[in-house]
Amino acid sequence: MPEHDDIVILDKGFTRNQSRTSPVISTARAKMSANELKAFYQISTLVKQDDTDFLIYEISSDDFVKKLGFSETNDSYIKDLCRGLLKQIFEIERPDGTWEAYSIFSSFKFKPKVRTITVRFNDEMKPFLLELTQYTKIHQVEYIRQFESKYAIRIYALLKDYRLLSYRDIEIEALKKMLVLPKSYKDFTDISRFVLMPAVKEINAKSDLEIYSIEPIEKQGKKIVRIRVNFGNKTDKQANQIMKYLEQRYKRSGQDPSVFYGFYYSISDEPRSKGEIFRITKIEADSRPYFTAFSEKQTLFAVLGKKEFMKRLLGGIYKALIFMADTEKRQSLDLDQWQNEQDKITQMKRILDSWEKGLK
Q: Where does CATH 1.10.10.10 sit in the chain?
C-alpha cells in the first residue's frame, strides 16, 4: 500500500467515478466556481474508502482538464485553475456557534515539459474525506461535470445527503450563507428566479435526480424563511414503469409464473458483476403455498405466499435489468441519450424481450 509521501501515478487518468464526502461539506460555505467544484469532486474520487491517509497523485494535465470538460489546456489556464483551487476553503459553522475554516488542498505542482499535475489534499481535510461513518455518496461524478451552474452542483450534493428520503427542508438564510449568494438576492423571489429554478432545470435534465417541486413551508410574516425540496431518483420512477410493464405481462399470461422463464434475477441489491446475475429457469410452488425460484439446479430464493414471492421476483428482475442495461449503456449509448427517460424505458423493454426469447 502506498505510504503518506508516495506519489501515485495515474497513468490511466481518472478511473473512479464515485465520491464520498462528509455531509458537513455539502452545507459548508464555499466560494468555489463551477469549474473548481467539478475539480474538487473529481479529485475526491481518488480517495478510497479504506484509505487512512492522503496520498500524492500525479496525472496528465491534459487528462485532468479534458476529464473535467474544460476546453482550454494551455499552461496559463492550468496554472490559474490550480492556483484558484489552492486558495479555496470550506467554512463550517457548528451548532454551538464555533466557526472553522479549512484549506482544501495542500499543494499543486505543474510540470509543463512532461504535461503532469501533482495534487494532494490538506491533512486538515481528513475528517471530511477519510474513514467516514456518514457520508454524501455521489455514485457518478460525471453528472456534476455536466452542470454549468455552481448552484446546481451544490444543491445536487445537498439532495444526495438525503438520498434515502423524498424531500429536504432548507432554511433560506442557511442557503444564502452556504452558497455565498449576492446581497442583492434579498428574498425568496430573487433566490427562486436566479438560483433555484436554473439549478432545478439542470439537475432534472442532466442527472439521476428529479426535483418535483419546491414549496415554502415556513414564513415570518410575509417572508418565506424555510422551503421544502421534493425530489426522487429517476431510477425509482423508471422502476415503477417497468414493474407495471412486468405485472401486465404476468396478468396477460393468466398469472403463470413461467412467463418469467429466461429472465435474469439479481441476488444482490446492488449487483456489481455478472456473477450476481442468474437466469430464471424454473419456478415451483407447494401446497402451503411456498414458492421457489431456480436457476438450473441452484435455488435463487424461496418465499411463503404468492404476493410476497412476486414482489421479490419482480424486484430482483428489475435490479438485474438495470445492471445489464447500464453495462450496455457504457458500451454503446452516450449519456444524453441514456438520460432521456423514454429512451431508457424502451431500451429496458427491448432487453426484457431478448431475455424472454432466450429459452425459446
A: 1-146, 147-233
